[in-house]
Amino acid sequence: MTLVCFRGVKANTFGLFPAHLFRGKTGALFCTLTHSGAKNKIRSESLQTQTASSLNKVNPAQTRKESRRTTHGFEAVIGIETHVQLSTTTKAFCNCPYSYGSLPNTTICPVCMGHPGTLPVLNSKIVEFAVKLGLALNCKLFMSSKFDRKQYFYPDLPKGYQISQFDIPIATGGYVDLDIPLEFGGGHRKFGITRVHMEEDAGKSIHSENQSYSQVDLNRAGVPLLEIVSEPDMRTGVEAAEYAAEMQRLVRYMGISNGNMQEGSMRCDVNISVRPVGQSEFGTKVEIKNMNSFNAMNRAVDFEISRQVNLHNQGQGNQIVQETRLWDDGSQKTITMRKKEGLSDYRYFPEPDLPEVVITEEYVNGLRASLPEIPELKRRRFEQMGLNMQDVLFLTNDINVANFFDSTVEKGGDIKQTANWIMSDIAAYLKSSQLLITEMKLTSEELAVLISSIKSGVISGKIGKEILFELMSKGGSVKSMIKEKDLVQITDPSAIEALVNKVINNNPKQLEQYRGGKTKLQGYFAGQAMKESKGKANPILLNKLLLEKLNAKP
Amino acid sequence: MPSASLLQNPRILLTSQTPFHRNLRHHIHTPNALPLQAPLSVTTSPPKSSILEIQKSILSQTQKASDIASEYLARIRQMEPRIQSFLHVAEEEKVMREAEKVDMKVERGEEIGPLAGVLVGVKDNICTKDMPSTAGSKILEGYRPAFDATAVRKMKKLGAIIVGKTNLDEFGMGSTTEGSGFHGTANPWDLSRVPGGSSGGSAAAVSARQCVVSLGSDTGGSVRQPASFCGVVGIKPTYGRVSRFGLMAYASSLDVIGCMGSSVIDAAILLNAISGHDKLDSTSSKHEIVDYASDIISKDFTNSSNPLKGLRVGMIKETLGEGVDAAVTSSIQASALHLEALGCVVTEVSLPSFSLGLPAYYVLASSESSSNLSRYDSVRYGNQIAADEITALYGDSRANGFGSEVKMRILMGTYALSAGYYDAYYKRAQRVRTLIKKSFKDALDSNDILISPAAPSAAYRIGEKTNDALAMYAGDISTVNVNLAGLPALVVPCGFVEGGTSGLPVGLQMIGAAFDEAKLLKVGHVFEQTLQNCKFVPPLLSESYGSDSTQ
Lengths: 554, 551
What we know:
Chain A: This is Glutamyl-tRNA(Gln) amidotransferase subunit B, chloroplastic/mitochondrial. By secondary structure, chain A is of the alpha+beta class.
């Protein structure tokens, strides 16, 4: 448990994640869900229900002691639509750049403003990114897909239609694997992916406070998106949030998006319905928007489930209507945004301005070969290397961290030691200096040398820790640093004996007290001796000799 | 000359007993179906290329570009009050400055482009950055694009001078130019008639020599039918041959920019200038570009006794039946005979799916237009009617900005794309389109070109079709199929029918295989240069300038 706490505190401070992940009070968990309140709630709930495993349609064999999958005889059915903004240098169909936070209407052109006579030209990078994500999600790819127009009027939709994909998306029928952190009960999950399709983003409407006017910013109009639609396979807030977290990891691993939820680079719309346990039809579906962290997602989903279950229990199940609700972070509630009046008809039809998107086996194979190892495969590999799930989840959360770990081990770093160094001192340093792991000066080679220098006894762990900070901030090599500063560990017993003798002789009063029964003073002597050696004395040897001397007959 | 006086006396030739002539017999019903003799003069020379003449005059310094420009500007001033071809005429000073630049270049011995000093009219649904571009719609009144359409940019680069923006049926939706949001245009052959549409302004301006050549756009016949009505040459290139960038979309999968001129060579030179792949239009083709003009300019086909020897010509049976004026049919049949005399082998071909083209076209074109016109919401540009909330802003601005034909097509298209109707209309129309493509392919496998009338009649009277949309749509029967198949087609004036003071021109449509424009232009050129006693200069012009001043 101490290890978990240690890691929790240290690791959550890891400077590799967007700041919003660490807004929770204590940051009990390093990777995704950081709100201790949520954690406690789920834990207490999980105590109440132990019989949920029979309901799990994804993998019935799994044990389900972690979080509860049913509430008062009801189970929730959750599906998620995720919009991921692609980090291409230009927009989907024109040459405008896009960067979050630009002054309104500064990254626009006649094409993305929908001026008469303009035509879309597909940025081929989008197809590449879509294929990559499709492969990473184990999807079947359509070798020939097409774009369609989704039509509706809104001031931030310049053309009056959104270019999207309707009946032939680029990828369909995949799945994603993930591991629930131990804090939430642990366990492996496999969630189905219905489809991945390419589309363009709309602009932003900004409404004045008194609602007297609205302004439109078209910077975002035409920015490429991938929409990932999941199967309705999730049952709890934790599962929904972990699914989203895995999507974020995936798009970051693939280098196709920054996945930033605060800036809206990744947006999740969650569809939730509840039904009595054992019923096969779905209940009435409610869509929830406006969750800008995984933590918020977890809480929003759990809130909405209990809202719906409560309505059922009060005999007011008919009050659950098909609608879109917003998560309000302030009141920690979902509130009605708009009720759906009938089905909206988007009048999809094939986009005549764009030719079919045809990809070849060769193209796909080329991309497949260039894909990084996906998080799931990394986790399984790290597990096989002997790391526990806590460590595995920590190290695989960020591909750069995982790569640093891999590289250090490859260069001879001890597996467990490497993991520990990365998760403790290195993580703390990165946090305090607000750096990414790729930005610090320490290389994986030097970390490997450092670890083996300690293991082989050339330097002490304490010295190791000290020079680590210098290596991280200033760079340089472990060997030259040891040489330059004369840091080689003193392991010669006679040299250590001399040190011990000196300290004992210099502290006759303390020696008297020690021998009078105040044995706690051993620590004092050890400290003095270590200080005398400038920290270089082998601590085991030092303590052994010190004890001998202290306990020797006067 | 192989076919001298053919058109004047087709009946005589019909007595000769070739199989084709037997086939033709049943089409001739009435004596008044006889094509009329062109009344202007008894002996006429075939049309010369105005572009080549201009280039020659400028280079040899027999005439200055500025003199030519002022001649055309004077004609615009004189004709425009009666014809109203233009929605916007360039400032005379600007045009003159451009022309003077050409003269200076010539004086300095610098190279000039093939379109140097050529005054071009541009249909107003094609974007020009220094002139308003409204597509004939009130909703875009005063709109000035930020860029030139690719076709315009390419013409300018070769020295063309844009003289104005020509009138059209709003967004290209119409066949008479009466659907313009601003004013109608009169047919120079008979001011009480329409010039056709939707590129009526472009056709009338060339016909009245207000410009040398013009750009039109053709979604269902909008270049070819007005060319026929106004007695000018019009070519609708293969879909994708010319970039659509800068063409305000009506029906994206059918739209194509086309060229009009008073001779086939002029149309060919202009097509040369604007063809080619454009990275701003993903539907533009990378198909090899052929020099459409050089070949026909360099060879003198008139010296050969049968210059089109062995060319297989299929006459489309379905375009000559019911609903087609007998006089038009006769003109086409006479044209067929003329082609035979030139060495062609003419047979009748049947395209069984032809009649399905019209409904399929109107479903598809309306569907696409309902979507393409969504952007005219008055939020970013265009006429806006102030309102308290957004749906009223949309509703009022669009109700006020669009004309009734446009509204009707938006409604039809929206309906056809609605859930529950999509399969019955849009999808079915797409299937018809596939059928039509196939039947054209079959017909063009066994024929080099296909021929038909460009329209079932000569120019309508103003107001004749305004209250009967279906009758107007029916007039598009011989052209829409070509757009559905994406094929190139050339319309060349081929004869006259009764009407006006001196007869009304009729055009022959020649349809080719995809990207086979060169063949069409060659055949069209030979046809045009060997046609006798037909002078396609409207009487209006002869009255003002004398019959030979403006060839």
